[in-house]
Amino acid sequence: MDSDTPAPVFDSTTFLKNLTTLPGIYKMYNAQDEIIYVGKAKNLRNRVSSYYKNQSASPKQQVMMAKVARIEVTVTHTEGEALLLECQQIKRHKPRYNICLRDDKSFPYIYLSDHEFPQIALHRGAKKKSGKYFGPYPSSTAAKESLKLLQKLFPVRQCEDTVYNTRTRPCLQHQIGRCTAPCVGLVDKAVYAQDVAHTVMFLDGRGGALIGQLITQMEQASAALEFEQAAAFRDQIGRLRTVLEKNYVQGEKGNVDIIACASQQNLACVQVFFIRNGQQLGNKAYFPSMLDEHDPGAVLQAFIAQYYLDRPAPQELIVSHELEEIELLTEVLGNQAKHAVTISPRVRGERAKWLQMAMTNAGLSLAAKLADKQSLHGRFLSLQQQLRCPDIPKRLECFDISHTQGDQTVASCVVFDQNGPVKSAYRRFNIEGITGGDDYAAINQAVARRYKRLQQGEHPAPDILFIDGGKGQVQAAQKALAELAINNVMIVGVAKGADRKPGMEKLILVDQEQPLDITAGAGGLLLIQHIRDEAHRFAVTGHRQRRGKTKKQSSLESIAGLGPKRRQQLLKQFGGLQGIAQAGTDALCSIDGISRQLAQRIYEHFHHQDGN
Known about the structure:
Structural class: alpha+beta
Radius of gyration: 30 Å
Largest sheet: 7 strands, mixed
Helix content: 40-55%
Low-confidence stretches: none
Strand content: 15-25%
Distance between the termini: 71 Å
Shape: globular
């Protein structure tokens, strides 16, 4: 049944009559029992009743309500609890008529360990390790740039402990002046601790105090006639001033997020600028998913609630538009973050300049996204025309195979919709039980495994299934679908031309003897090339990962007495196969469960394989 099919008549009168007046959330379901909208209310009866009053319901709400087959409510203690529960449900179910923030990776932090000679590194995920965390940074690129900068300012090590513990001589980082080599004892503990303290001051936003400290040290070195050391401090101060001038936000000392929204048609861009300890860490653009057009204030309201659901808000949010429920949001965010949170829609001076910059960036990002969307829509239209489809395709899938001389075969499946790649729907399949190098059998197995899950309702069917290959691969895919009784998917083979040049591809259709002629440079062909190249990239990446893992395992598996648990322990402790190969028998013996006899066998495995 189509999702737009009108729902059976819902007895709203009886439902509303028995509905509670307590706070909570309400979930609206369509005829297919899919959640199409989630909302929260201080008074559930009053809020839900408003949808059934024609004079107060908007045309969009009326269209939505025509699809409602049932409504389910969950009562909460407070409206704040209802807001949190609403956000959780929206992020989980992504209802069609809600503004949904697309899933994003957890933010990266800069992590400083509590080791005797601490390591500074990029960290993402749960903060389980003891030490200090600085951030969050808007992207891993921003965090890596900061780490690179810190290496030039303060030579604190960035290598993993497993590498640090097994070093016997200084690495390249020491040779280029980016590390003082504590691993081999080339730096005094007190000197290293000073570099760590300076790093912490910089990351804490105390750049002015840090420069003052370095000036004092420079003057002391000069007075002691240590002119080389004084010159080193002078150069460090100069580099530090340059960095601070570039990233310093005038008038800001605390943690602030500047959030601006631009909205047009049914697309919106939310631009977030991150300021931590008075320094600008970067910015990031978000494009919430929404079916209808919403004003920027409503978009920001939904965005902020969902965005800070699983991450603490800073002390202040500067926003570009007024929010309808600013008091409720302030209360909930403060409770979540365990400190007071202020939301400021009206600012002046330097803050107004920053907000204007965020709004300009949001507008530019939105314009670029609209242009891409229109371009992508044009490519889907072209694809419809080139393949003579009755309707514009909504969902495309593409399969590709990767292996090395038939070994470690991996199949990839990538998915595109009318907004571009749907990376959350990508899948890889490790192919087993076939003759090495049999691409036809590999495609058959991958397609069968993928669309068996379709029958179980795990994902929707594509309108077109692309196969990277010729007639043999297409027939293998067709056979797999036929065995599953799936006959409503169009299969198209994408075969490379005689010269294997882009634009010379041949399209193989199931019912046609000759390849389909497609206009070179047409938008539809560009779309096919895009999805084919993405499938190839995804397959090759998966194959390399599988091959690398097998190489690691196979090399250690040949050592008698070394079981899977000890193999994993060795790889973890020494940071990989190279670290194990460089370790001596004493270092190997230090691992729990590794006897001296076994350590000797491991050592000989790596050092006497060539009979030397």
